[in-house]
Predict the 3D structure of the following.
Amino acid sequence: MLKTWLAALAVAMTAGMTMAQTPKAPWESEILPPALAWHGVSETLIAKPSDPWITPSELTGLTASPNYDETRAWLEKLDAASPLIRMEVFGKSPEGRDLLVLYVSKDGEKFDPNKPVLLAQAGIHPGEIDGKDAGMMLLRDIAFERGAFHGKDNPLNSVNLVFVPILSVDGHERASPYSRPNQRGPLIQGWRHTAQNLNLNRDYGKLDAPEMRAMITLIDRVKPDLYMDIHVTDGEDYQYDVTYGWAGYQGDFARSKATSAWLDKAFLPATEAGLKAAGHIPGQLVFGLDNRDPKKGLGASPASLRYSNGYGDAARIATVLVENHSLKPYRQRVLGTYVLLEETLKVLAKDGAALRAAERQDRAQRPAVIKANFGTSFGGAGKPLHTVSFLGVLYETYDSPASGGKEVRWLGKPDPKPWSLPLYTSEPSLDLTPAKAYWVSSAKPDIIERLRIHGVQMETLAAPRAVSVDMIRLTAPKLATRASEGHVEIDAGPVTHETRTVTFPAGSVRISTDQPLGEMVTLLLEPESDESFFAWGMFPEVLQRVEYIEGYAIAPLAEKMLAADPKLKAEFEAKLAADPKFAADPDARLGWFYARTPYYDDHYKLYPVGREL
């Protein structure tokens, strides 16, 4: 079926048919609702079939996307043909594939530090591969100075570009027509997760995957002024084809407030105007609260550290999370992405100095209180930020004999009347007071390594050092009931604090929070933070006891303790009266006494990261 359709498409393109006249892709008549009609000026960006530098996707009318080997071969050919393009390998995937990065510049081997840098990343979710094919078209036009990329107004005169065509390369090659059932093209789509079954857009803080470790290392090396992470949505139908956002979008919470303000006031108007002029409908990155009730309201993207936009906010990097609309044809989405990339280069060429000033201002901040725990679900809870005018699509509901309830049927026609919907934003549920510095023992080398990859500044001890630190005791930690991203997450629950003198061995590190990444350090090392290494389950050893006491030893000792300490006896009797289950459990009763003896392990439930106050 797929080969038949591709053959028919080739005939149609040769005959010069418009996209409306070409044969429908196999998925068009199956499970997806009808597509909204579209035509835009950006269609002139597509190379003619006779162009020797037509991209593999353009050869299919922007309906299919090349595999890894085809993508690499085309990019290597472009690299060899243009002095403006340089391709390198910046990492390896678990299955041994090279991670590719392209440096695009008029500066030669070394970037001019006075020029702003855009780092654009595609394929973190390889089924959502719009950015790769848009980027290949863009690089071709830059290499041969076509369109906007020639003459004195060429943005590359003033800006440098770093482009990652496929981040999750193993997922890219787990390809099938059935990977993205809610998405209209490309014909063959990669798989959302990596070969290790990890979602890379949940890995920005914890850094489990080699792909993400390589990406963060690249970010630390090239130090982009703007980082763009390109995705495709799921969810409901609407008129927008390119949606995007960032932490703090138009009044939402942001850690990097000056950077967020620049994105609101400089980046957003310029890119929206460019997209509209090219025939696209840009919109805010939002998610429906209820896919069975489209008018219930919208939720903004959470800016948690596990996601690119939350990471960038904590790292003091302007980070734009792009979500093209899944129900728009692949052709329309790719062209919209091209325009967004081009307009981003233009705005950086014009106003990059102001962005750099904003980022410097944010890097100088040392907040006394750090907001945490926004939740991690898209379109989640919180309070209405404001009411927005939303360009919806007509729909009807019907009784489904399959689900047994009401389902939505999208009708493929824009609603002529904008919807007025409440927009909800995630609210932080925790205030953290950062320590002056955190102490991490050499017994946790993996934690230290993750922090180093993030670019965190630290002092490494050459010899043991005794330090008075504040330590956190967990009183009722709770393990998640199922695994998530290769971990069993842990909710720290209520905690207590105690001052202790701890001797940290050589190789341990002291991490001051008086640094640009101090806020990120706090989020990663305070156990109550839901983005901390502890919350991801990386300190499970503190929840296990390894020494016990037999009943024949503790029972007579407990009896002596009761006789010798009237206050202890009164406390014990109150516990018996208040907790019948405890009173009926001999082991629990003896355990109560054991915890009050010097034999008890005083490291049990003691979080081993020291806090210097």
User: Anything to note?
Assistant: The first strand starts at residue 85 and ends at 92. The CA atoms of residues 139 and 580 lie 72 Å apart.
